[in-house]
Design goal:
The chain is an alpha/beta fold. Helix content is about 35%, strand content about 25%. The chain contains ten helices and 14 strands. Strands 5-4-1-8-9-10-11-12-13-14 form a ten-stranded mixed beta sheet, sandwiched between helices. Strands 3-2-6-7 form a four-stranded mixed beta sheet. Helix 4 runs parallel beside helix 5. The longest helix is centred in the last third of the chain and has 16 residues. It is globular. It starts with a strand and ends with a strand.
Amino acid sequence: MIVTVTLNPAVDEEYVVPEFRPGGWFRATKVQRSPGGKGINVSLVLKQLGLETAAMGFLAGFSGEYIRDFLRRAQITTNFLHVRGETRTNVYIVDEVGKVETGLAEPGPYISEEEIARFVSNYERILKRTSLVVLGGSLPPGIPQDFYCELIRIARQRDIPTFIDAAGAPLLAALDEGPNYAKVDQRFMAAYEGVALNSLDNLIEAVTRVHALGVEWVIASYRTYGNVFFTPEGIFLAEFDRKGIVSMFGSGESIVAGLLLSGREGAGTKERILFAMAAGLENALHVEKGVRDRSAVEKLIPRIRLEKLA
């Protein structure tokens, strides 16, 4: 079973508006409310693709109960620790004309040292029936910036592979621990490297350095509709066109879920990348996060352009 860890979940509220601009007043043409956080999003897509999964992390208040109930109704196993405060809400505004997305994220509830210790205890127990761990998203107040390192270390001691999808200091610390998979944002890597990564050569150099830390698979976003994949069989660029795209919100987690599912089924490297990117594209074709079903993803594989770079 794949376990996803979302330490700072959220209730995501997505609004589609015509020609959004600051200072105006708009009526949304579409509204979508759903549980969020990178790990939770991966769990939801894995379930939509037919794979059992479990989600864990911290939940608080009324919003936390909403997330727990939603996941249980979706038949996803939950192992969240309930804490004081209120689970955060994130707001995303999609300009349906300009195709520009704007987001506003809350910090989340404070997590005490006692609550951290209880979570680690739960984590160690669930690893007994886990085949892979996905660690995703930001850290709430109170959680040390190197906490992902500890979770990766605990999993490695039990020979359980890990996937990290984060940014900032938590990601940098986690990379030093050498997870098996890492998804990194191009803009963050550019700031970290101190060079523009709008050229493929610079981006390849950056993901190569991440791979040198012991990360077997590295996924780095490239422009808006592409990703560079550093794999055991070489470096690939995969892209899809923007035809029919409504919102990219959640597409990254759909790519992660597609890559992991196809890997569990024994697909080759190129097939894994194609299926993962098709899952990301399917997510982008509607306001609702996630994919409609597996057949919808498979139908989009011909729209993926794949090129081996090295």
